[in-house]
């Protein structure tokens, strides 16, 4: 997806009618510009200048007829009027490399960048990579102040000359990945071409034709990985000064190597003396690369003329070869014309004279394809291998997602498991569900290890899809227990618990028919704030959830054993649940929870039982409430009669049976508090 261009006016940009989920915006036009000032040094009284981005600030007019040179620091500021959203949300800002370090601030807060900006060389570290940052937005936020700070003390030109793109995180990340993938594919093809022709030289006929293709593909490969997204830095950590020298080296030698190659093909038309002159000029410029970058980058003001002169000579001599009907010259004329156009574009783009993108490597691929027809099969095979690699990576990510929930990565703002870092975390309100098989330890002792695993997998395969179907996800398996998270509503967790108990009853019918013992599962549910994050150390990471709410949900699951209930939820979950959910509840009591200083109200969900028991409990719900109220008033004789009446009708009501025993105990030992 190509970004839409929007033009700021007077340092302001109105985006109130923009949908960040549908498009990328390239923030161009008039930005406020504060030379030599950091964002924290700017106040309402600071007079701004205005600069049109993207552009370098060289020769920017200052008061008293002064002009900026390439060195220094400047803050580019833009006020954005945002589309209003009622819920908390976020945007993403994708910034291409800027000359030669940059930092992104939103409302005065640093979010990221490349290198380190500073007002002098001692406080400055160059860094020329794209940066992608997330901009968190508060509910109802109407505007924000975006500051792009650029500092340069290493290049002849400074400023924000590259793309500044605003979107949601997914689209911005897709564009960054797409750019890098395109460059990687082009680099793979160029590298493959270079290696193939080098092997042809050594193992075939020692042809200088093969050497020429190898050298040309190799120098364009070097230029491809050191410009644009500078993908070399994704594999090798190199100082900016080295990367810049490699970029200039590839630039200085692209045209001379191509001239040497054509001289080998058509010695009658490409004069040796002229070919040698261009090679000597590039050799001299290469020696200048030994100087500090502030000096050798000045060659960029001279070399474009030499480069274009060399390109013009190549096209002239090659056209002469075509007129003389030299072999292969027809395709080479067309291919070289493309190379010349691409070279002009790349040179003007690198100098900030025009705003486009690098197309030279692509033109080289077309050139090589036109020249070597037999190489088409090899290119196709290489592309297929890259596609297979991409499919394997997707398959690998899908495999990883079975060990690490995709939803977990979603809430951490990640799309790739490789992006996860130690210490990343986010706080969110969720509903926690704990499900545990009753008396599993005793049950498992009668099974072999294989039977234990087969049983657990059969059980989990039945309840896992129910959790996902109700918009939840399993955080972890703890032996025979399940911990699941429901990020949207307690309704989802309660509905999942009821469906799980229904599925377990069906499973038990199958187990009984097969001669196996049926199982019982207790489910505890609580709603509260929790922290999702990455714990561990650098060699072993794990996604986990930390919260008192998690511990409380686990303790509530333990309450199901105390009361012989199947589904118990906290009062917090009960209050937030939709009363139109269609389920029946009854208050159990205020019970002491291990690890909590205060007792907690817990509620039973009656729909977890089979239909007959459920209907019987619902029919006695009023009598149960009256008996429970008497119990809480410590009128134990009245409560006892009430619970006895319920048990006469519903003898399988474990909760009433427990309260009956407590009534009898209180009546027998009135001096002991319950």
Automatic annotation (TrEMBL):
GO biological process, one term: cAMP biosynthetic process
CDD domains per the UniProt record, alphabetical: CHD
Keyword Transmembrane: yes
Keywords for this protein: Membrane, Transmembrane, Transmembrane helix
InterPro entries: 7TMR_DISM_rcpt_extracell_dom1, A/G_cyclase, Adenylyl/Guanylyl_Cyclase_3/4, Galactose-bd-like_sf, Nucleotide_cyclase
Guanylate cyclase domain mapped to chain residues: 431-557
Transmembrane segments annotated in the record for this chain: 185-203, 210-228, 248-266, 278-296, 302-320, 332-350, 356-379
Protein's name according to its UniProt entry: Adenylate/guanylate cyclase catalytic domain protein
Organism from which the protein derives: Leptospira ryugenii
UniProt lineage: Bacteria, Pseudomonadati, Spirochaetota, Spirochaetia, Leptospirales
